[in-house]
Design a protein that fits this description.
This protein has 16 helices and 16 strands. By secondary structure, it is α/β, with parallel strands linked by helices. The protein folds into 2 domains: 174 residues, Aspartate Aminotransferase, domain 1 (Alpha-Beta Complex), CATH 3.90.1150; 251 residues, Aspartate Aminotransferase, domain 2 (3-Layer(aba) Sandwich).
Length: 456
Amino acid sequence: MHTIIEPFKIKSVEPIHFTTKEQRINILREAFYNPFLIKARDVIIDLLTDSGTSAMSSEQWAGIMRGDESYAGSDSFFRFEETVSSITHMKYIIPTHQGRASEKILFSITGGKGKYFISNTLFDTTRANIEFAGAEGIDLLCDEGKQPSLIAPFKGNINLIALEKCIQEKGAENIPLVIITVTNNSGGGQPVSMSNIKAASEICKKYNVPFFIDACRFAENCYFIKQREKGFENKSIFEIAQELFSYADGCTMSAKKDAFANIGGFLAMNDETLAMKCRNLLIITEGFPTYGGLAGRDLEAIAIGLKEVMEEDYLKYRIRSIEYIGDKLDAVGVPYIKPTGGHAVYLDAKAFLPHIPSTEYPGQALCGELFLEGGVRGVEIGTVMFGKYDADGKTIPAPMELVRLAIPRRVYTQSHIDYVAEVIIEVFKRREKIKGYKIIYETPLLRHFTARFEQL
């Protein structure tokens, strides 16, 4: 088998600022052991997120120069609308400045006390916007997805039996919508099968509950369907995406992921009444419906990126580059969520650092060590991000303790990835000496962005 090379040539470069381990000790201490509080210039390899961190193509940069900045009815909007509509076949396309803005609008209108939003797994901002609206988010991940070391093709699936039972118990009238995240970010970047999406859609139709897709990484998910699900091997990614969206009543998307854009997102739906309400709130909070908080140049970049992301040469390289890290970690027994997902490697911090309990945040501790060892910045997806407190103030741990190393699209080369694997392995060798953390400052919502820690 030939080496899978990057399906692009590099035209512009950005310098990396190198630090020493002694410098990083002070940097991490001054950031209160929170990667979000580290200055970007002090990071050597930045895997905090794949959101908005992609390298745009020459075509996207050309599109930026063509951007029509008219306040209302710009040409850029209509090109954007046509592209989204061709993929989703949804009637109403509403641009927003990013995914969480779409969530804020949607859940502000549909949420409220006594309401429940059901998902395979909600990510942080999605859950926060649901809770801010007074509602409750319920995760119903399939059993396979709860076992990090288990090899299964679609570990991002929603538990269909639990979904129908939950609708019956909570009452369909109290469930504004069911939303499936593709790929399942909190669950290890794992894909959702087409059969699971179709079955979930049928259950929702049975109880007259709207069914939405969180489409941030729809193209990566469609590539997994093509590779792993019978009947799709000869279909194009575009055709698979069209079928995926055909089962949904609407979708949200952060275009900062699978559209290669540095900013942007959208809401799409078929319900005219809901679309009218969303547009009304959009005007108050984001902008006119044909720009939605974005410059025309950003709408152009998104429209072009949505087409580029469905190119199979790119997706083959993208998925293989993530597998490549997994292969290196397997060679020395580093625990991570298997198989590797579409956009990131998720280290299993609970198995990596079994001597650190969830109440001492093993994922956060592992993030700190990766930065100290090699200037690699990742993010904790565990009890810091998703933990709760009970009535007595006792910590309710998250189901899994993970560290996500999200790979920006078209940014790093194989040598960068080799370096990341070496850093992980070096930390793994001295894992028994790593200590946990305690929180000394936190906010009520999305605490992981600004929390401060002390090393125990």
